[in-house]
Amino acid sequence: MAEDNLRAAGAGSGLGTWFDHHLYSLVASLGRVFRKPGAALLTVSVMALALALPLGLWLVLGNVERLAGNVERSREISVFLRQDVADARAAALAGELRARSNIAGVVHVTPEQGLASLREGGALAGIVDAVGEDNPLPHLLVVTPAGDELMVAGSLEQLPEAEQVQHDVRWRERLDGWLRFGGRVSWVLAVLLGLGALLVVGNTVRLDIQSRREEIGVLQLLGATDGFIRRPFLYLGAWYGLAAGALAVALLGLAALALREPLATLAASYGSSFALSGIDLPWALAVIAGASLLGWLGAGLVTGHFLRQTRPTGL
């Protein structure tokens, strides 16, 4: 019974020592950051810029995709009929299309209605008046599909009365392709610049290790474990990563704030209420946590390599 109590006390003491050393390493590594503010600021700034570039590209792509989503709500297909199609046939064709199960609705715009719409628009009023009584506009059927847009557009192109079928699906497909390409570019940049940030924090931690080389050698001779020696440097890298992540989020927030008003004004000139979407709190916390992990990994790689090279023989 007494032996069990001694083992429990030893385990509790070991756990407390482990926790105390973690706490000491956390605070001491933060103190080492503040002891060299110039070097720390340079490291954090380089890491923050490396993180902000791919993150900013992701934000831009997200806003473009959201704008594309607003555009995609308009699924109408415009069918311009031939000039020789009579009014009665155009009206009958509109009724036939409404009866199809894959078509939700059809709006028949007569040449007279189209000309009146152009005249009311103002920009082309002078040209419309110059035309005189001769109306060059054809009948227009604005079709809203209920099913597959490509299939509906293909069937409309087969109509004998159709002169031209205008549909935005091909434009949207190209836009989706560019968005996918931009997403791939952002991932490549994130990997490359993430490796750059890893090297920056690793080099900074390496310099700190070199300045404490003798201290580390003494600890190794006294039997300190690699984990004990590595721990303060891991927290040092994590502090650099955390500061860099916070600075990157702040830079992106300032950029979004600077661009929001001009973009809103530009969108309003086109009759749109589109507003730039910035950084929300969960996204910002995820960026800071990821940057801290990146700094931790960079410090761990450099410290591990150093300890393998300097481990005394016979230990």
Write out key terms for the chains shown.
alpha+beta; 2 domains; four-stranded antiparallel sheet; disordered N terminus
Structure description:
Forms a membrane-associated complex with FtsE. Keywords: Cell cycle, Cell division, Cell inner membrane, Cell membrane, Membrane, Transmembrane, Transmembrane helix. The chain is an alpha+beta fold. Helices cover 75% and strands 7% of the residues. It folds into two domains: 22-72 and 173-310, no CATH class; 77-167, Alpha-Beta Plaits. The protein is rod-shaped and about 100 Å long. Strands 2-3-1-4 form a four-stranded antiparallel beta sheet.
Report the strand count: 4
The major pleated sheet works out as: 4 strands, antiparallel
Rounded average pLDDT:
78
Strand order of the largest sheet: 2-3-1-4
Portion of residues within helices = over 70%
How far is the N terminus from the C terminus? Answer: 36 Å
How many domains?
A: 2
Parts with pLDDT < 50 across at least 5 consecutive residues: 1-12
Gyration radius from CA atoms, angstroms: 33 Å
SSE sequence, one letter per element:
HHEHEHHEHEHHHH
Tally the helices.
Answer: 10
Protein structure class: alpha+beta
Strand content: 5-15%
Tertiary shape: rod-shaped
Membrane topology: Multi-pass membrane protein
Protein name: Cell division protein FtsX
Pfam family, one: FtsX
Keywords: Cell cycle, Cell division, Cell inner membrane, Cell membrane, Membrane, Transmembrane, Transmembrane helix
Write a brief structural summary.
This protein has about 325 residues and is of the alpha+beta class.
